Amino acid sequence: MSLLKFTSKGIFCPQANVYLDPWKPVGKAIISHAHADHARWGMKNYLCHNLSKNIIKHRLKTEHVESLPYNKTVNINGVKFSFHPAGHIIGSAQIKVEYKGEISVFTGDYKVKKDGLVQPFEPVKCHTLITESTFGLPVYKWEDETILKEKINNWWKQNNENGITSIILGYSLGKAQRILHAADPSIGPIYTHGAVENINEILRQDGVQLTATARVSKDISNDQYKGALIICPPSSLGTPWMKKFRPYKTAICSGWMAIRGARRRRNVDTGFVMSDHADWDDLNYAVKASEAEKVYVTHGYSEIYAQWLNEHNINAEPLVTEYEGELSEIGEGNTLKEEI
């Protein structure tokens, strides 16, 4: 890459002296979204989208965070940077970098299919595209959001009618809010683990409209939560905290549920195929829509997907990064820490 360089600290723009989603401490970091594998501790200054700002401040315990809305340009030493909707989670952004007519786009993590909650993905034309490939195989194709919502609510409703608590697992940032958006509050009350409610509170303060929830109390009374829906992070599975809700059934929302046996590996009762990442069709759409002359493929099936692109006359190359995608949801890779 001529405009961006790949270094041991992350993706670097020498002209502006800034890094994009670096994984080692640097002076200036431009952040695509607030997930822990992309927004890391130790940077002197952070720049992100408006709806990621307060989450990053909360999670990283720093005040050195500036933000921009989508499509507004900031000039750093002659280089233009702007954020564009990535469709991944609330506040997620693709980072457009432009200098002397050359344009590079770093997608971070993204999803093309609309979920009704996150501002939808918008393709950005560029010369160089850096794309993820978390689910870069043809087997990964996500179903319609309406069908997914129906499956989640039918599962909860059946448990509710049988006096069983429904515990559903998803990242406290991103997946939890999408689960909440899918849930039908007419079935019963919705409670959240503290890590989830902390994020919900920040998003509500920033003007995001979310379904009403209540934080799970420290003194858990089984009868209080009977038939309710409880949203909590994957790290809660099998803990003494969770066992206090008996009788209960568990479900996990993840793109990995598309693989036979993934639910069994997580030891949950049900798995819903819900991902905040691009599926196979999404990836190919995004690459084609960018009209990029060169494509770099990061985390996931990077080598396989880059090879496939080359076989279809798109100049592509895999890159090794420290981004994780959804690996930690099924116990692979490094588990992301959740606030209690």
What is the correct CATH architecture of the largest domain? 4-Layer Sandwich
How far apart are the termini? 41 Å
**Could you say which structural class the secondary elements and strand pairing correspond to?**
alpha/beta
| The first-level CATH class name of the largest domain | Alpha Beta
Q: What's the story with the biggest beta sheet?
A: 7 strands, mixed
Helix content: 10-25%
Radius of gyration: 20 Å
User: Could you tell me the mean pLDDT?
Assistant: 92
Tell me the overall shape.
globular
Structural descriptors:
340 residues; Metallo-beta-lactamase, Chain A; Rossmann fold; 6-stranded mixed beta sheet; disordered C terminus
